[in-house]
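Usage

Read records sequentially. Each one opens with the input sequence:
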Amino acid sequence: MPEVRIDQLSSRVAKGPDPVYLLAGEEPLLVEEALDDLRQQVREQGFDEREVLHADGQFDWKRLQDVARSLSLFSQRRLVEVRLPGGRPGKEGAAALKDYAAAPPTDVVLVLICGKLEPAQRKSAWAGAMAQAGVMSYAWPVKRQELSTWISRRARSRGLALDADAVSVLAERNEGNLLAVAQEIDKLRLLGGDQPLGADRVREAVADGARFAVFDLPDAVLEGDVSRTMRVLRRLRAEGEEPVLVLWGLSRDLRVLAELQAAGGGGADSQAVLRRHRVWKNRQSRLQRLAHFAPDDAWPALLARAAAVDRVLKGAERRRPWDELIELATDMARISAPH
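and closes with the structure output:
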């Protein structure tokens, strides 16, 4: 069957348990909460016994068939959880999962729990067999533009009233860290009770738990968001990110922008530039617009500055690397800002 969204899994289980579930994703909080809900529902539907297997490197996959097909002294219907953190069962495990999915027992619900799965893993034969036999549900990351909606919905479900500004503060301070958002909402519920909370109260109570990766910086820069660019840079610096990786992310886009500007920003030549640099489709139109509307030679000039920053990082010039990166990134963001 097709993949079921993680937030729709509960309603699917309520109609009756499927014999097989594959729960995976890049948001551990969503995976674990979906698993908790599944446990409760199948228990209410008569699957009273639960067994957990940890499929590490030494796991004997024959245990899966043994556990599933053995009779229990206490319950005729069981929930069997197999945790596979790396999402790589190996040749033996893949064969065992496919065999199981081909003829799952009627008195067992099997749940395979994984973390992030690469595209090849999601399209593998074993994952396809499990999805075909039951349900596959993947917890995709909550996008930045969706985080405020997620926070508002979760706060309401916890009986917490937050105004729009308070939601914005909570989203800004916990971007990329869904578990921290959930924990802060629970804390705010204790502090505020049934009373609505505004931005000032939330700002006082909530720590800055945002997490950023290197690729978040180019996104902030190309959106023209100078404030967010500075915030991402400060967080990357505080977390000990290597400056050379930060510069790589900025320089990669500067090369594309400089070549697009030289090609006129559009047409066949621009398409050749995008193909050569393997630019993702969801970024192509933004880069083309920036190349077209930026002042003449703006991007080549910034690319030359990036080369100068590279010399600073290599110790050829005595300047502060992070100061140079901040100046370069914020200048890029100012040029990228909508006009």
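Summary fields computed downstream for this record:
- The two ends are 47 Å apart (CA to CA).
- The CA atoms of residues 43 and 49 lie 8 Å apart.
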